Amino acid sequence: MRVKDVMGRVAIAVQRDATFAELVATMRRFKVDAVAVVNADGRPVGTVSEDDLLPGGTGLPSGDTDLSPGEADLPRGGEGFPRGEEAPAGGGRHPDRRRIMEMTAEELMASPAPTVVGETSIREAALLMHVNGVRQLPVIDAVSGRIAGTVHQADLLRIFARRAPEVLADVAAAVARLRLDPRTLTISVDAGVVRIQGRLARRSQIARLAEAAQQADGVVDLRIDVTYDHDDLADDLTGEPADRPAEAAGTGRATLARTAPED
């Protein structure tokens, strides 16, 4: 399963010149803890999080709140100064609240922005969120680079949390619709990873099998390890049947239909 299967089509983003107040308002409106910053062409150039607005403080709740920017408990000592600036000697109880609140998104943002495309796997997106410490990622168009939507941590959790028997039933149903002989295939599910083993009549059926299986909700990764009786995709059409392993590893791409060398 890929990001395009679970993403939201609303692009949660602000322009580079967005004000502190606009950043806070956007986070409240969409109930998120970070927003993407885009250039004039709509391409992400950075991200502003709650920590960028109020580093070391309480942060802004991602849900509804009556907290105003002026009421936020900004950090003490030398923390929380604008990027590239140091705290004055001897520190002080707070950084200049007014200056921080007058900064733009471009001055506050972390850059570059972590992004994904529609074809990014759910597992890759989850790892990217973990590494960057964020709960949502901007989804960009693979060709133009413009922001096309947002994928949230909750979207991914719904996929990871689906029970194995439910995933197994959906994959089995998808395979049955292909009119393949179920007696020749074994399907197992473990933590969202679907493994299909067995034998097919033709090599070309591998691609159809992979496409059908990965459409089931909850399929995080896919492994296909089968043999086939006839290589109908072979360039050398000798008419002689082939009988060798074909492996496909869960990227969901067309390469799933190609024979990969065994380890």
Task: Output the keywords.
alpha/beta, single chain, 3-stranded mixed sheet, elongated, Diverse_CBS-Domain, CBS_dom, CBS_dom_sf, 4-stranded mixed sheet, CBS domain-containing protein, 263 residues, CBS domain, 2 domains, CBS-domain
What does this structure look like?
The chain is of the alpha/beta class. It folds into 2 domains: 3-159, Roll (CBS-domain); 164-257. The chain has helices spanning 20-30, 50-53, 97-101, 105-108, 122-132, 153-160, 164-177, 205-214; strands spanning 13-15, 34-38, 44-49, 116-117, 136-140, 147-152, 185-190, 193-202, 221-230, 245-249. It has a 4-stranded mixed β-sheet, covered by helices on one side. α1 links the parallel β1 and β2. The model is unreliable at 55-95 and 241-263 (pLDDT under 50).
CATH superfamily of the largest domain: CBS-domain
- State the distance separating the first and last CA atoms: 25 Å
* Tally of contiguous helical segments: 8
Strand order of the largest sheet: 7-8-9-10
CA gyration radius, whole angstroms: 25 Å
Largest sheet: 4 strands, mixed
Q: Order of helices and strands, N to C?
A: EHEEHHHEHEEHHEEHEE
Organism: Streptosporangium sandarakinum
Protein name: CBS domain-containing protein
InterPro entries: CBS_dom (IPR000644), CBS_dom_sf (IPR046342), Diverse_CBS-Domain (IPR051257)
Region (Disordered): 46-96, 234-263
